[in-house]
Design brief:
With about 90 residues, this protein is α+β, with helices and mostly antiparallel strands. The protein has helices at about 50-60, 75-80; strands at about 10-20, 30-40, 45, 70.
């Protein structure tokens, strides 16, 4: 695989990166640990655009009100889904 930014060869896809994220409502920031990332010899370790979108979507649909300010990517995916509608 080539680097998405600089087209360098031999990038590694099995890296993890800790990142700060702002919640969709903009009221708090969180730290997500061990997000799957790419390691480029030229650019360093970064989160791909695709993974960035997956995190944004997960933050929007999961209820994180009981979560601390810091948790792992896997914990994010296991969080309960928000109940958007109250079906009777």
């Amino acid at each position: 695989m080539d680097c998405l930014w600089c087209n360098a060869l031999n990038v590694e896809e099995n890296e993890k990166k800790d990142c700060y994220w702002i919640m969709p409502d903009g009221k708090r920031s969180i730290k997500i640990l061990q997000i799957p990332a790419i390691n480029c010899p030229e650019c360093g370790i970064y989160v791909s655009d695709h993974m960035n979108q997956k995190v944004d979507e997960a933050l929007s649909i999961h209820d994180l009100s009981e979560y601390p300010e810091e948790f792992t990517y896997d914990q994010l995916l296991l969080a309960p889904v928000k109940q958007l509608f109250n079906w009777k």
